[in-house]
Protein backbone atom coordinates (compact mmCIF):
# COMPACT_ATOMS: atom_id res chain seq x y z
CA UNK A 1 0.00 0.00 0.00
CA UNK A 2 1.53 3.35 -1.03
CA UNK A 3 2.01 6.06 1.58
CA UNK A 4 0.89 9.56 0.99
CA UNK A 5 3.42 12.28 1.90
CA UNK A 6 2.59 15.92 2.26
CA UNK A 7 5.44 18.37 1.90
CA UNK A 8 4.93 21.90 3.07
CA UNK A 9 7.38 24.64 2.11
CA UNK A 10 7.61 28.04 3.66
CA UNK A 11 9.84 30.94 2.95
CA UNK A 12 11.14 33.13 5.69
CA UNK A 13 10.95 36.88 5.46
CA UNK A 14 14.75 37.02 5.83
CA UNK A 15 15.41 35.08 2.62
CA UNK A 16 12.71 36.97 0.78
CA UNK A 17 14.19 40.30 1.83
CA UNK A 18 17.71 39.14 1.09
CA UNK A 19 16.88 38.01 -2.42
CA UNK A 20 14.88 41.15 -3.13
CA UNK A 21 17.51 43.54 -1.81
CA UNK A 22 20.56 41.85 -3.31
CA UNK A 23 19.22 41.53 -6.82
CA UNK A 24 20.38 44.98 -7.86
CA UNK A 25 23.15 47.21 -6.64
CA UNK A 26 22.28 50.83 -6.03
CA UNK A 27 24.60 53.57 -7.19
CA UNK A 28 24.75 56.85 -5.28
CA UNK A 29 26.11 59.52 -7.62
CA UNK A 30 25.21 62.24 -5.17
CA UNK A 31 27.81 60.99 -2.68
CA UNK A 32 30.62 62.33 -4.86
CA UNK A 33 28.98 65.76 -4.79
CA UNK A 34 29.17 65.98 -1.00
CA UNK A 35 32.20 67.34 0.83
CA UNK A 36 32.99 63.98 2.50
CA UNK A 37 32.78 62.30 -0.93
CA UNK A 38 35.09 64.88 -2.51
CA UNK A 39 37.52 64.52 0.38
CA UNK A 40 37.49 60.75 -0.06
CA UNK A 41 38.34 61.08 -3.76
CA UNK A 42 41.11 63.53 -2.86
CA UNK A 43 42.43 61.05 -0.27
CA UNK A 44 42.56 58.34 -2.93
CA UNK A 45 44.27 60.47 -5.58
CA UNK A 46 46.75 62.17 -3.25
CA UNK A 47 47.38 58.97 -1.26
CA UNK A 48 48.25 57.28 -4.54
CA UNK A 49 50.75 60.06 -5.20
CA UNK A 50 52.33 59.58 -1.76
CA UNK A 51 53.02 55.91 -2.12
CA UNK A 52 53.99 55.98 -5.82
CA UNK A 53 56.48 58.78 -5.23
CA UNK A 54 58.12 56.71 -2.51
CA UNK A 55 57.76 53.37 -4.31
CA UNK A 56 59.77 54.75 -7.23
CA UNK A 57 62.83 55.16 -5.01
CA UNK A 58 65.07 52.91 -2.95
CA UNK A 59 62.85 53.45 0.09
CA UNK A 60 63.50 49.95 1.44
CA UNK A 61 66.99 51.06 2.47
CA UNK A 62 65.47 53.48 4.98
CA UNK A 63 63.02 52.08 7.56
CA UNK A 64 61.26 55.44 7.99
CA UNK A 65 60.07 55.38 4.40
CA UNK A 66 58.90 51.79 4.87
CA UNK A 67 56.57 53.03 7.61
CA UNK A 68 55.27 55.80 5.35
CA UNK A 69 54.69 53.25 2.58
CA UNK A 70 52.79 50.97 4.95
CA UNK A 71 50.47 53.75 6.14
CA UNK A 72 49.96 55.17 2.64
CA UNK A 73 49.17 51.83 0.96
CA UNK A 74 47.09 50.50 3.87
CA UNK A 75 44.82 53.54 4.05
CA UNK A 76 44.70 53.91 0.27
CA UNK A 77 43.29 50.38 -0.05
CA UNK A 78 40.83 50.91 2.81
CA UNK A 79 39.69 54.26 1.42
CA UNK A 80 39.00 52.68 -1.98
CA UNK A 81 37.07 49.95 -0.15
CA UNK A 82 34.97 52.49 1.78
CA UNK A 83 34.35 54.55 -1.37
CA UNK A 84 32.93 51.43 -3.03
CA UNK A 85 30.76 50.76 0.04
CA UNK A 86 29.40 54.32 0.00
CA UNK A 87 28.97 54.49 -3.78
CA UNK A 88 27.05 51.20 -3.94
CA UNK A 89 25.13 52.00 -0.74
CA UNK A 90 26.17 48.65 0.72
CA UNK A 91 25.94 50.17 4.18
CA UNK A 92 22.14 50.19 3.82
CA UNK A 93 22.15 46.41 3.30
CA UNK A 94 24.17 45.69 6.45
CA UNK A 95 22.34 47.57 9.21
CA UNK A 96 23.96 45.48 11.95
CA UNK A 97 27.23 47.40 11.46
CA UNK A 98 27.36 50.79 13.21
CA UNK A 99 28.61 52.63 10.12
CA UNK A 100 28.90 56.04 11.76
CA UNK A 101 31.19 54.58 14.44
CA UNK A 102 33.18 52.61 11.86
CA UNK A 103 33.61 55.75 9.75
CA UNK A 104 34.72 57.79 12.76
CA UNK A 105 37.25 55.14 13.84
CA UNK A 106 38.55 54.73 10.30
CA UNK A 107 38.96 58.43 9.57
CA UNK A 108 40.32 59.18 13.05
CA UNK A 109 42.94 56.45 12.86
CA UNK A 110 43.84 57.46 9.30
CA UNK A 111 44.31 61.06 10.43
CA UNK A 112 46.54 60.14 13.38
CA UNK A 113 48.67 57.57 11.54
CA UNK A 114 48.97 59.72 8.40
CA UNK A 115 50.04 62.68 10.56
CA UNK A 116 52.75 60.53 12.15
CA UNK A 117 53.78 59.20 8.73
CA UNK A 118 53.89 62.71 7.23
CA UNK A 119 56.09 63.96 10.08
CA UNK A 120 58.37 60.93 9.74
CA UNK A 121 58.46 61.44 5.97
CA UNK A 122 59.32 65.14 6.27
CA UNK A 123 61.97 64.59 8.94
CA UNK A 124 63.61 61.81 6.91
CA UNK A 125 64.07 63.87 3.75
CA UNK A 126 67.66 65.08 3.57
CA UNK A 127 70.00 65.54 0.66
CA UNK A 128 72.66 63.52 2.47
CA UNK A 129 70.64 60.30 2.31
CA UNK A 130 70.37 60.05 -1.45
CA UNK A 131 70.27 63.12 -3.67
CA UNK A 132 68.77 61.04 -6.50
CA UNK A 133 65.58 60.40 -4.49
CA UNK A 134 65.41 63.79 -2.74
CA UNK A 135 62.73 65.36 -4.97
CA UNK A 136 60.44 62.31 -4.82
CA UNK A 137 60.72 62.12 -1.05
CA UNK A 138 60.13 65.86 -0.64
CA UNK A 139 57.05 65.71 -2.88
CA UNK A 140 55.72 62.66 -1.02
CA UNK A 141 56.14 64.55 2.25
CA UNK A 142 54.13 67.51 0.93
CA UNK A 143 51.33 65.28 -0.37
CA UNK A 144 51.32 63.27 2.89
CA UNK A 145 50.47 66.47 4.78
CA UNK A 146 47.74 67.32 2.25
CA UNK A 147 46.23 63.82 2.61
CA UNK A 148 46.44 64.22 6.39
CA UNK A 149 44.35 67.39 6.15
CA UNK A 150 41.80 65.55 3.99
CA UNK A 151 41.49 62.80 6.61
CA UNK A 152 41.20 65.50 9.30
CA UNK A 153 38.25 66.98 7.41
CA UNK A 154 36.58 63.60 7.02
CA UNK A 155 37.20 62.88 10.70
CA UNK A 156 35.33 66.09 11.53
CA UNK A 157 32.38 65.15 9.29
CA UNK A 158 32.37 61.60 10.69
CA UNK A 159 32.32 62.99 14.22
CA UNK A 160 29.37 65.27 13.41
CA UNK A 161 27.51 62.31 11.87
CA UNK A 162 28.37 60.03 14.80
CA UNK A 163 27.32 62.65 17.34
CA UNK A 164 23.99 63.23 15.58
CA UNK A 165 23.40 59.47 15.50
CA UNK A 166 24.18 58.93 19.20
CA UNK A 167 21.98 61.85 20.30
CA UNK A 168 18.90 60.25 18.73
Keywords:
mainly alpha; transmembrane; elongated; 2 domains; membrane; 5 helices; 168 residues
Overview of this structure, please?
The protein is an all-alpha fold and 168 residues long. It folds into 2 domains: 27-97; 98-126 and 136-159, no CATH class. 68% of the residues lie in helices and 0% in strands. The chain has 5 helices and no strands. The chain has helices at residues 13-21, 35-55, 63-87, 99-124, 134-167. Helix 2 (35-55) packs antiparallel against helix 3, helix 3 runs antiparallel to helix 4 (99-124) and helix 4 packs antiparallel against helix 5 (134-167). The longest helix has 34 residues, at 134-167. Residues 31-163 form the MARVEL domain. This is CKLF8 protein. Its main location: membrane.
Proportion of residues in helical segments? 55-70%
Tertiary shape: elongated
Q: How many strands, what sense, and barrel or not for the largest sheet? A: none
* Rg of Cα set: 23 Å
Q: Could you list the spans in which at least 5 consecutive residues all have pLDDT below 50?
A: 7-22
What series of H and E elements makes up the topology?
HHHHH
Q: In what range is the share of β-strand residues?
A: under 5%
Q: Could you give the distance between the termini? A: 66 Å
Number of domains: 2
Structural class by secondary-structure content: mainly alpha
Number of helices: 5
Q: Give the integer mean of the pLDDT values.
A: 85
Total beta strand runs: 0
Amino acid sequence: RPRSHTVTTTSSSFTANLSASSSTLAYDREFLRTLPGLLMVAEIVLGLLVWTLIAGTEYFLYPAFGWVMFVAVFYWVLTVFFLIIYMTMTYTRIPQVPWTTVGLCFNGSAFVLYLIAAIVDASSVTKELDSHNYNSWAASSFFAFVVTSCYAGNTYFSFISWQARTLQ
